[in-house]
Write a structure and sequence with these properties.
This protein has helices at about 1-55, 60-95, 100-155, 160-175, 180-210, 215-255, 260-265, 270-325, 330-370, 430-435, 460-465, 480-485, 495-505, 510-515, 535-550, 565-580, 615-620, 625-630, 635-640; strands at about 390-400, 405-415, 420-425, 445-450, 455, 465-470, 555, 585, 600-605, 605-610. It is α/β, with parallel strands linked by helices. The chain folds into three domains: about 40-370, ABC transporter type 1, transmembrane domain (ABC transporter transmembrane region fold, Up-down Bundle); about 390-470 and about 550-640, P-loop containing nucleotide triphosphate hydrolases (Rossmann fold, 3-Layer(aba) Sandwich); about 475-530, no CATH class. It binds adenosine-5'-diphosphate.
């Protein structure tokens, strides 16, 4: 009894397993169908995009493709008919026809053949070799600049988002050698059109003379399509993996090798450790390549078998028709040529179609990157001219993908023209507050209001113009010192004002010593006459940039850390004069800056712990500010 029950249980178990397997199989099929539909959709979108772009930017490309198409189709169709023409001439000649007429025909065929070959070479050299490759380069650069522009204009939040960084990398790689870029995709598409035209001609000949060849070729074609599609799917799947690995490898290989990392790598003796990490990453990529190769191999073998079978059946069939006198010798030669051209064109077509799909799918990453969803709400409201009040209304913030809040319940009002100093220990959230105010991130809870309006409602461009900010990790670029100060206004830079500002920031004497004054390039990497500025000089340049911008709200986030206390004190003094009636926010470890400010906000434990004037806070017994100030007191008395 129990044995029977056990058997029943096993059967039930078996049935459940079978059902699950069937369901998984169905799910897998559904998923593949869905993937195919998506892949087709991406191909259509990419082709439409590339055609529009090429038509708008380089319409000449279409003329080149048209010329090549005509030449290519004629060349291949001529290969089908030439053997028949020659064979028919030969047969007539052998059966005693007039020699001179046949010689004339033979010479004409020879002239056509030679002309086709010469035109072929010329077009390949001029159209394919020179003109098209110049256009290809042009598009590569256009796309590279477009991707860089999009990367620079994306919401700042994305610069730390691994998904956005992967999307950027995939866009660059997808439009690089994976797809061949705009020209690579369109080139493949026009080749497919050529193949279709040749196949129609070849199929016409075959249908008229040896019709059974058509199903043989079609069956072979379907087999081919199937296995080629599998190979493409495997390659696209591995591309996803490789793209991420390439980015990490690129970091090790290129960025770490940059000269600017040289000091830390040498002093911390870390070249060995970096090399090891690079090797590990290279191994990971090698395994991915190996896995791709393993998975595609059996599909390649299957395609070889299909080829061999198709050839064997085709030639046996044509030979049989000729031997049994069902077709003439000329038709036999034409059929053999047509079968060969048909085979090559079908192969090229299947391959070409899949290449187009594959290239379009790679290139589609670029379209996706251009449409990468914004991280923040975009408003359109204009900023009202005049004075501006800033208000943090119960603002709490947690960085994207982070668990803990770094700011909680911040309530703060900054009146127009007020100078606020923000102090607090490292990691207290001071810089984060400034980033929120500049809308590099959106608040998680609460709202920031400017003139009583939520900042999300303002037009991003107009809103950003309210601020001149110097962050601790500001960047100088490999442009001239003047351009580094004027940035977006470089073309119409007011040299006199820049000179005045450089004087105020204490840089003018250093600039006078430079070979080309304020036109000297910063960094030597791109200009041998360039200069390398010291940390202090760099900070002064960044401060000059903020002053030149002449925005109504000025923010300095510890930009003076590389300066000695006297220079720092001087900068703040000058800054006060220059900022004058504008709203200013200073973040500094050195409390000397607070002396110039109307109010001080002390940040601790993720929120504002103390708020008031210097005189009010310095007198609070046991207060954070008072304690910090007294610790640094010696320093200020020295300066004062
Ligand atoms: P402060 O300017 O007061 O030194 P920050 O505002 O720079 O402090 O940093 C506040 C906290 O937020 C720190 O714990 C820091 O690690 C964290 N933090 C800063 N930037 C990021 C970021 N991009 N992603 C996640 N956490 C961050």
């Amino acid at each position: 009894m129990s044995e029977q029950k056990a058997k029943q249980d096993t059967n039930v178990q078996q049935e459940i397993e079978n059902n699950t397997e069937q369901k998984n199989h169905k799910d897998e099929k559904r998923k593949k169908r869905q993937e195919s539909r998506e892949s087709m959709k991406k191909s259509r979108e990419t082709l439409a995009f590339m055609m529009r772009l090429a038509w708008k930017k380089k319409p000449l490309l279409f003329l080149l493709y048209a010329i090549r198409l005509i030449q290519d189709v004629f060349d291949r169709v001529w290969q089908i008919f030439l053997p028949k023409l020659l064979m028919d001439e030969l047969q007539l000649f052998l059966s005693g026809a007039e020699v001179s007429r046949h010689l004339h025909n033979l010479s004409m065929y020879a002239v056509i053949s030679v002309t086709v070959t010469v035109v072929n070479y010329l077009l390949r050299d001029i159209v394919d070799g020179h003109v098209r490759s110049v256009i290809r380069e042009w598009f590569q650069e256009y796309i590279a600049v477009d991707i860089a522009r999009q990367a620079m204009e994306m919401d700042f939040e994305h610069t730390e988002d691994p998904d956005a960084l992967d999307a950027l990398n995939k866009a660059q790689e997808g439009m690089g050698w994976y797809s061949g870029g705009v020209e690579g995709v369109l080139d493949q598409m026009f080749r497919v059109i050529g193949d279709i035209l040749v196949i129609c001609s070849g199929a016409g000949v075959v249908l008229a003379t040896c019709p059974l060849l058509v199903p043989v070729q079609l069956a072979a074609l379907l087999g081919f399509l199937y296995f080629n599609m599998r190979i493409n799917r495997i390659e696209v799947h591995h591309f996803e993996k490789l793209s991420k690995d390439n980015r990490i490898f690129g970091y090790f290989f290129y960025q770490i090798a940059e000269m600017c990392y040289g000091k830390d790598i040498r002093l911390y003796n870390s070249a060995g450790m970096m090399g090891k990490r690079t090797d590990e990453q290279a191994d990971r990529m090698f395994h991915t390549w190996q896995s791709q190769d393993r998975q595609t191999r059996s599909n390649n073998w299957a395609m070889d078998v299909i080829n061999t079978l198709r050839d064997a059946i085709s030639y046996f069939y044509i030979g049989y028709l000729a031997i049994t006198h069902r077709i003439s010798l000329g038709d036999f030669a034409m059929c053999v040529a047509a079968a060969s051209v048909l085979y090559q064109s079908l192969f090229a077509l299947t391959n070409g179609l899949q290449q187009v799909t594959k290239r379009c799918n790679y290139a589609h990453r670029y379209l996706e990157f251009l449409e990468y969803p914004a991280a923040m709400e975009k408003g359109s409201r204009s900023i009202t001219p005049g004075e501006h009040t800033i208000e943090f209304a119960d603002v709490s913030f947690r960085y994207p993908r982070a668990e803990n809040f770094v700011l909680r319940h911040i309530n703060l009002k900054i009146k127009s023209g007020e100078h606020l100093s923000i102090v607090g220990l490292n990691g207290a959230g001071k810089t984060t507050l400034v980033k929120l105010l500049c809308r590099l991130y959106d608040v998680t809870e609460g709202a920031i209001l400017i003139d009583g309006v939520n900042i999300k409602e303002y037009s991003e461009e107009e809103y950003r113009r309210l601020f001149a900010v110097v962050f601790q990790d500001f960047e100088l670029f490999a442009f001239s010192l003047k351009e580094n100060v004027a940035l977006s206004e470089s073309e119409h830079a007011d040299t006199e004002r820049i000179a005045e500002i450089l004087k105020l920031t204490g840089l003018s004497e250093d600039v006078e010593k430079l070979p080309e004054g304020m036109d000297t390039m910063i960094f030597k990497s791109y200009d041998e006459h360039g200069t390398e500025l010291s940390g202090g000089q760099q900070q002064k340049t960044a401060i000059a940039r903020a002053l030149y911008r002449n925005a109504p709200i000025v923010i300095l986030d510890e930009p003076t850390a590389a300066l000695d206390p006297i220079a720092e004190y001087e900068i703040y003094r000058q800054f006060e004069t220059l900022v004058g009636g504008k709203t200013a926010i200073y973040i500094s470890h050195r409390l000397s800056s607070c002396r110039f400010c109307d109010r001080i906000a002390v940040f601790a434990d993720d929120t504002i712990k103390e708020y008031g004037t210097h005189d009010e806070l310095v007198g609070v017994e046991g207060g954070i500010y008072a304690e910090m100030f007294h610790e640094q007191a010696k320093y200020y008395t020295d300066i004062a």
